[in-house]
Design goal:
Interferon-rel_develop_reg_N; 4-stranded mixed sheet; ARM-like; Leucine-rich Repeat Variant
Length: 472
């Protein structure tokens, strides 16, 4: 290796080590309570994602893009560091691409601290930038590198960052990439089922759900993921009548509830009648989790119940097992709960969320979530879209506003088309109401149906074709 190249590599490694050491913290990525996630589920409040405002004000505990929680620094998309020494600001597309490529080069280093810093950079660049064209020639290398980090991670943080990078990769490049999904699926499924780390299991479940949602055309494949999540939500009891500590951990339960509701929004688009049957198997479990000690578990369960009520009512499927009167009484008792052992802030959050849920069940009155993107205020008034917002925010963290403004796939999923002007051109605020029945949302759903039908016919032709060959 030429001396100059070796010197450059050593300089880059020293910079990565210095940056990691300077920002290292002792906090666990999932160590803090879930109150901030529950707060993020308060859909009655407007949320401002103006580029000029701080985007850290709605940081989520379950948002594993929270670099501060991971203790890895790199505070966000506005960082002006230039880790490559090129002099290019890291906030420019060119600077971001160089940072990502440099990080990929050192991702195979033996020293864990270097790999962590590199993974942090990769995740940060992918989350806070939308650069599909600039990264197209290395997109496969990015995914392969992240997948390799899952084989034998030395630390929990390494696995969590790699999984998160995989999830964001699919948000950028994953539309229709079912072969790529099938490539990473076994590793993610294994982590969901067998990892000894609760945080790793939860992150893998989120990545599995969002990558399946985006990339998979085979509907049966999506149902398998729903069943996998359901198994985590309702794990079998041991002979003494208990469940494992991982199965009952609030972090795992919150993620399982979130991913279950999120995947049902996909099933509801393709086969509305199947949602009722899938939810029936864990309806009682949702009722049990309304009594959880964890605020975020209680609220995730309540909002899934609101979604299924909304779905069944909209599709005139009959409420049946919902046991409406019993359910509403339970929610109203929770609303009146004045348990002094629960923090006043948590009680206030719970009441706000429960009011939305109860209004849905009693008056078919949906909640209203508003997000602001420069001069656009986007309003969501359907539980399907609101549950999707939660999952994409959990995946992208503070990069959510970037992808909502500039990623066509994200806009298509939410059925909205935004023409974001330059900051200097912003004069007035325009309001946009997101409707899952919008033309854009319908077009994506129809396109996915056509692709699935095409795959079904191809498989059918292959089977019949083989039978004809045998006859010959």
């Amino acid at each position: 290796m030429p001396a100059q190249s070796k010197s450059t590599d050593n300089q880059l490694r020293r910079q990565l080590l210095k940056k990691t050491a300077a920002t290292k913290a002792t906090a666990s990525p999932f160590g803090s309570p879930y109150s901030s996630r529950a707060q993020s589920r308060n859909v009655s409040d407007d949320e401002d994602f103006d580029d000029n405002a701080s985007v850290d004000s709605w940081a989520l505990d379950m948002n594993t893009t929270g670099m501060e929680q991971l203790g890895l620094g790199d505070k966000g998309a506005n960082s002006q560091d230039s880790a490559d020494g090129s002099g290019l600001s890291s906030s420019t597309p060119e600077g971001s691409v160089i940072r990502l490529k440099d990080a990929l080069e050192v991702l195979s280093e033996k020293r864990v601290s270097i790999r962590l810093a590199a993974l942090n950079t990769i995740v940060n660049v992918l989350a806070h930038n939308y650069l599909p064209d600039e990264l197209d020639d290395i997109k496969v290398s990015i995914l392969d590198s992240l997948k390799r980090c899952l084989k034998k991670p030395k630390q929990e943080k390494e696995a969590i960052l790699a999984i998160q990078g995989i999830a964001i990769w699919f948000v950028i490049f994953g539309d229709g990439e079912e072969s790529m999904y099938n490539d990473v699926r076994p590793a993610l499924e294994d982590l969901v089922s067998n990892s000894k780390s609760v945080a790793t299991r939860a992150q893998a479940m989120n990545a599995l759900a969002i990558s399946n949602f985006i990339a998979v055309e085979d509907f049966n494949n999506s149902i398998k993921i729903v069943k996998l999540i359901e198994a985590a939500l309702t794990p079998p009891k041991t002979p003494d009548g208990r469940r494992s500590s991982i199965a009952t951990d609030p972090r795992m339960l919150t993620q399982a509830l979130s991913s279950f509701g999120f995947m049902l929004t996909l099933v509801g688009q393709i086969n509305p009648g199947m949602v009722k049957d899938l939810f029936a198997t864990c309806f009682e479990r949702h009722l049990q989790l309304l009594e959880s000690d964890s605020l975020s578990v209680r609220m995730a369960s309540a909002q899934n119940l609101a979604f299924i009520h909304d779905h069944l009512t909209e599709n005139r499927a009959g409420l049946g097992y919902m046991k409406q009167e019993r359910l509403i009484n339970t929610l109203q008792d929770m609303l009146r709960d004045s348990n002094k052992k629960v923090k006043q802030k948590d009680r206030a959050q719970q009441r706000s969320i429960l009011r939305d849920v109860i209004r849905t069940m009693t008056n078919n009155d949906p909640p209203l979530l508003k997000l602001k993107f420069r001069n656009k205020i986007v309003s969501f008034d359907h539980w399907t879209q609101i549950l999707r917002v939660y999952t994409f925010r959990d995946t992208l963290g503070t990069g959510f506003h970037t992808h909502f403004m500039f990623n066509p796939l994200v806009q298509a999923i939410f059925g909205v088309s935004l023409d974001i002007p330059h900051e200097s051109e912003v004069m007035t605020t325009e309001r946009v109401v997101v409707d899952p029945g919008s033309e854009l949302a319908k077009a994506r759903t129809l396109d996915m149906k056509h692709k699935r039908e095409k795959r079904r016919l191809e498989k059918q032709n292959m089977i019949f074709g083989n039978e004809d060959d045998d006859d010959l």
